What we know:
The chain has 239 residues and is an alpha+beta fold. The protein folds into 2 domains: 2-87, Nuclear Transport Factor 2, Chain: A (Roll); 98-236, Glutaredoxin (3-Layer(aba) Sandwich), CATH 3.40.30. It has 9 helices and 11 strands. A 5-stranded mixed sheet has the order 7-9-8-10-11. The protein has a 4-stranded antiparallel sheet with strand order 1-2-3-4. Strands 5-6 form a two-stranded antiparallel sheet.
Amino acid sequence: MKQLLVVASVIGLLACSPQGVAQNDSSSFKRQHLERMGFVIESVNDSVIDGVYEVITDQGLVYVTADGETLIGGRLYDITGSEPQNLSEASIREMRRSDIAKVSDEAILYPAENEKYMITVFTDPTCGYCRQLHTNLEQYHKLGISVRYLAWPRSGLQGSAYQQLKTVWCSEDQQAALDAAKNDKRLPAASCDDPVDEHFALGNKFGVRGTPAIVLPSGEMLPGLVPAERLLSMMQNGQ
Length: 239
């Protein structure tokens, strides 16, 4: 309810603001309050509201007043048309695309022979829907959809899924290890400087709340299992 009230407040502000991008001076933005709260600031850009900045942090997108003293959660919507338009989504998608590119060499890739699209999937070997997606990889591959996996243990940085994922990413044959983990087969011991914690933090930043979470080439994120045909249709339509 609190988040809805915040979003409603933001919509009200936007409805009263002039159209176009406000010109703020981000060099004067005061960071200390956000940093004191534990946010790591990655970028500060103008928002459509005069005196409010769009701030990308390690915890996702937030809006902050120019004096750095007021944080606004939620999303901005343009409500001038027949349907509300989510103005925050473009920035969020760009953030996801950029961040995924940085960790693409850490993903476990299952490529399609005639690749047309690449999706990124946050996965957990103990998740039934993740197993179902993995079992049906051939359906995605036939449609030219390559799948690359990042780790996201649903129980957090503890428990069996977390340990399995660490072992998978440290295995000499990562594909074989992930296949085994998703079929309840015992994994040979393996340890290394794995990226599981990093992937988990990235998923949290993106807004992952469960697995599988599918990130499309556009940066849009879909929660849950999505059949191959529907997924292809969405990407063909530019989502």
